[in-house]
Design goal:
The chain is of the alpha/beta class. The protein is built from five helices and five strands, in the order H-E-E-H-H-E-H-E-E-H. Helix 1 runs parallel beside helix 5.
């Protein structure tokens, strides 16, 4: 049986996060066909508001790669990155960002401040949205509906 796609892996991690009471977001950093990092939101578990899936995946990938940058690598994430995560993406110089669901409230890539389009942004990755959006959106809706 073939390995799951990077986005399928990220979506599985998002499901895991939701089952543990975390917002359902998963992120995977790939270098070619190699998974450098696969993380999920852990803000509650770590008591750290910066423990977004993307931030944890970037930190793990940097440690595994040992180069201080992630140029040539791709990020797969189940929700459009926020401003904090978009800033980190630019700083580590990820080549490409694939995201599933748009975040019209806190997204900073195709919504909100559109960080990568700002003249002061020193690196702009290629961005591809909508991959696995239906599954991610359904998870997010169910998670936040249960909180209300």
């Amino acid at each position: 049986m073939p390995a799951p796609s990077p986005m399928d892996l990220a979506l599985t991690l998002a499901e895991e996060a939701a089952s543990l009471g975390e917002a359902p977001v998963g992120a995977v950093v790939m270098e070619g066909d190699v998974v450098l990092a696969a993380e999920r939101n852990r803000m509650k578990a770590l008591g750290d508001p910066t423990a977004h899936a993307e931030m944890l995946a970037i930190r793990t990938a940097l440690e595994n790669r040992g180069t201080g940058r992630l140029d040539g690598c791709d990020l797969y994430v189940t929700l459009e990155p926020c401003a904090m995560c978009a800033g980190a993406i630019a700083h580590v110089r990820l080549r490409r960002v694939y995201f599933a669901a748009e975040d019209t409230k806190a997204g900073a890539v195709e919504n909100g401040i559109r960080l990568f389009e700002q003249p002061t942004c020193h690196h702009k990755p290629e961005v591809i949205g909508g991959i696995g959006a239906g599954r991610s959106e359904a998870m997010l809706r169910a998670f936040f509906r249960a909180l209300r």
